[in-house]
Amino acid sequence: LKMSWVRFYLPLHVLMAACLCHSIKAPTTSSQQSFRTDLFNFYHSLILADGKETTVHLMKDIPKRYYFVLEESRVLSPFTVTVTPCDVPIEWSILVHKASASFLGRETQGDHDTREVSQSQRAPSMVSTIFNYKGNSVETYVGMSSHSALYMLEFLSTERDTHITVYLTTDTTSGHLYPELPVDPRIDVIGVGHTTVTLTWKHSPSVLQHRESIQYCLLVNEKHNYKSLCAAETAIRSSGMKLPPTLALSLSPYLLEPQQVMILSNSELSIINKVSSGEVRQICMGTKNTYTVPNLSPSTQYYFDVFVVNLLTNASAAYTGTFARTLEEPEPKVTELKDGKVIQVVLDGKKQKFYSLQYQARHKKVQFSFQLCRGQVRVHITKNGKTVASENISGLRYFSLKGKLLDTYLVQLRSTEESNSSVKVQVSPHFHKPLFPLLPESLKIKSFSKLRTCNSVTIAWLGTQEESKYCVYKKRIEEDQVWRELQSADRCSGPESRHKSEKVLCKYFYDLNLQRAVTTETIGGLDAGTLYLFDVYLFGPSGIPVRYHSKVVKTRKKC
Prior knowledge:
Elements: H1 5-9, H2 12-25, H3 30-43, E1 46-47, E2 52-58, E3 64-70, E4 77-85, E5 90-98, H4 101-104, H5 111-122, E6 127-135, E7 139-145, E8 149-156, E9 162-169, E10 187-192, E11 197-201, H6 205-209, E12 214-221, H7 229-238, E13 260-265, E14 268-275, E15 278-284, E16 290-293, E17 301-310, E18 316-318, E19 322-325, E20 334-336, E21 343-347, E22 355-360, E23 365-374, E24 377-383, E25 386-393, E26 396-402, E27 408-415, E28 421-429, E29 446-447, E30 457-462, E31 468-477, H8 482-488, E32 503-509, E33 518-523, E34 531-539, E35 545-547, E36 551-554
Parallel strand pairs: 1-3, 20-22
Antiparallel strand pairs: 2-9, 3-8, 4-7, 4-9, 5-6, 5-8, 10-11, 11-16, 12-15, 12-17, 13-14, 14-15, 17-18, 17-19, 21-28, 22-27, 23-26, 23-28, 24-25, 24-27, 29-30, 30-33, 31-32, 31-34, 34-35, 34-36
Helix pairs in contact: 2-3
InterPro entries: FN3_dom, FN3_sf, Ig-like_fold, NDNF, NDNF_C, NDNF_Fn(III)_1, NDNF_N
Organism: Oxyruncus cristatus (sharpbill)
Subcellular location: Secreted
């Protein structure tokens, strides 16, 4: 029976001919017909490459067959077959046909040989099934063989068209294509927060042996666990987006799709895939076996899968996936608002959290007043749980609302910028004095270029029909300070925050005719060729100032 690989599978034609010749010499039986069918299936199968991962595409309800041959050996020779479904569950099996001298025919050698032929005719079939499986897990069959045999793998998908990967190897001494998993391949959840989950897992033996070419990659999603990396990639593709190949999990460069975001920091590669069912994150962290997943949503269940990836072959092995639910976000602290009392709120732009204020109405009509001090702020007001106002505010903003006694109002404030914002808030019945003075149409300060001299400038601003107090302040600044001074100005701060030397004057004025409600001031005693920052503060009956927009003017250098 000694024969090489080539010498064994090339004589398939001979085997078929022998089968046909044998059927002529003896009446056709059901066992002979079954055998010829089995042999026909082998003959019409594809050769499965040894030592190489093969991608197999399956069409629904159409079986696909591959075969390989093992030659005779004096010792038991191991071989392994690993099948990885990349989508739906499949059915697959391994069949073996052992070479038989009695089948090849020794009837001319004597009575004893003739009996061997007759026994083979009565055998049901020389093909036997040694393994079968149905499911979507990665399965590996390990077999031993000492004599020549022909093996066939049969694959079938009954749900839909799909693809799988198949890896056959008869050389178990030259290392593994797939990284090894530890004896305990579970992922442990060791910490859960509102927006984070901390995971740990036991090291793969492959990481300890080949640290340079092996790394761990983590997959995070809100749908379910994946039993293989190709199953995860197939699911993402089926959602309508194009995914890079598995090599994307290594640090190889590639082009991202518009639905993808790549973040590389501290030697960690994060790929965020925006899909219809939420985010799918791929995070590769080298050989660290503990990782804290950041930026999760509170009170949300997440599924975590860890894959150990061979960067040289792109082959991977999956740990047993786990899941965890982040903690519920704590109820925000609510501050009580009182009639007529002004409070100033500083909002953290980085955390983007709402600051909540609550007010229980003691009158049917109430007015909320907001003065934006710095940054940009979003205001959301609900009455008894129903939204009554929601918008971004700038400058001064009033909301006059009608309701019933003891209605509960909830005001939520949030910075819409990454930098901190601040705002002043007051609530009061309509018949109380207003928080802010009557305002002009514009809070801009105008300067007159033609009236500038080396030691003076002339500025103007609008007034109102209500007699009010206006105070002017100046500050000498440098060229590189202009942007910072204008951006960092606190529009809620009053003259009390200014140095006494910066005060220029205070004056009262008004005009019933708004067309003439304009005042000008010429400010002298300035240095030539120098930048000055001018501010005007308007005081109303409540004494709370409103700051006009700062104006920067430069005196003439030569006169």
